[in-house]
Every structure is written in structure tokens, then in C-alpha cells.
Amino acid sequence: MNLKLTFAALSDKGKVRQNNEDNYLIEPGLELAMVADGMGGHKSGEVASQLAVKVTKDKFESMHSTGMKPAPYNDKFSLESNQLGFAVQLANSVIYEAGNAGPENKGMGTTLSAALLNKNRLCIAHIGDSRIYLYRGGIMQQLTEDHSLVMDHVRKGLLTKEQAETSPLQNILTRALGAQKAPAVDLVEVALEEGDRLLLCTDGLFKAVKEAALTEIMKANPDDQKACEALVTTANANGGPDNVTVAIGTTSKKTFKENLKDMFKKSYA
Description:
This protein has eight helices and eleven strands. It is α+β, with helices and mostly antiparallel strands. The protein has one domain: 4-Layer Sandwich (Phosphatase 2c, domain 1). Strand 7 and strand 8 form a beta hairpin. The radius of gyration is 18 Å and the shape is globular. The mean pLDDT is about 95.
């Protein structure tokens, strides 16, 4: 059984921030979605997150169309995951150089969480503390790991998850694009099933809406665009302390016609 993945998305500046430094990108032709949460003075956070999604998409598309095998290559993951991770590294180089080119963008950076459907598997490339969740059978599972100081403390048993949620250190990232020349980018692969839903979000969502409430909103809103709207509305109703961006995708079975189209594309590639 071949699956397809379609996304809806929404971004809002929230109730406190003056501008929106989040960005997202949905590329239906590639079955690719990304969210990014920028940081830096003036409007440089906005620039960083925009560069992250655009450069990653362009570089991945270029490698994907030529079948290029990036180096270094991680044999634990598919070619597509390696290509996506390499594209994120190339985006990092662009942001790092832009951040060091002049004082106006000094210190800019961004998170990036990218999800790609490859046949019936999900390929993820991730850095920072935006998140990707899998919603299946009424249960929400976080697929990415937060690269933040407080979550490092939680993993080491120094803090509970509840303490981390109120810690004054929760905005300190241990990894982000633009902060180093070549930061580690997490790759994750997960087998998907028909009816699975994915939630990609920036921290403006999960810091304002608890995981149990996220699960309930997903359950109550089977339509992805309505679910996006409900999540953003709830984050803002809870104070909207940060920019909030969400992308939700649902898997479904490809039609006979879509499978034929894929076969035709492959034979003429």
C-alpha cells in the first residue's frame, strides 16, 4: 500500500510579540513540510527562519531530482533522509555566513523541523526545540528531541518535565541553525500507517497548550485546517506568549491513478 501525505498550516504572531519570526513551508509535490522559529535582534530572526525553510527545500529538491548521494552519509537512514539532513546543513552554512557578514544580523539563528514522506516512511531532519508529533489511535507521540538546556536536564534526571515547563532557562537552546559552523542535525525515520496525523509546531504552541489539550484538540478536529485554527486560537487564548506556527498532515491511501502516475514518472526519470 502506497501512502500520500497532505498538509495544512497556520502561523500567528501571538499576543505579545511585535513581529512573527516563525516561518513554515509546505511543498505538496515533494510531500514535505517544515516549521522554523527564528531568533536574533531586529528582524534577523525572521530572515533566519525564512532562509532555513527556503534553502532546505531548494537544496533537497535539487539533490532528490538528481539522486545525489551526500557525504558524509549515514547508512542507518535512507537516501532521502540523508539528502534532507544535508540540505539542512547547507541551510545552516547560509545562515551562519549571513549572521557573520555584518552587525545587523549578528547572532541570528533558527530552529528547523522538517518532515518528508518517502514511500510509507516518514523522514525527519530536526534541530532546535520546535517539535514533530505523531498522532495515532488517539495517542500523541513526540518524534523529535528538544535541543534545549532544560530538556537536557530532564533527560539527565535533574528536572522533571513539569519543572522544565516553568523553568526560567527554558528558552536556552543547545543547538540551532546559524549558531555553529556545522551543528549536529537529528535524523529520524518512522513507518507510517493510513490515517496517521503529524503535527509540526514551534514552541509557541506547546509552551501555551499542554500535551493533553493538544491531543484533545486533534481528536476533536479531524479536518487538518480546522485543527490548525483551533490550536492557534487556544495558544492565543492562553496568553499567546510567543509566535505560534503549526502544520498538520494526514496520511491516506494513494488512488490507482496516483500509483500509475508515479510509475510513469519513474519510467521516464
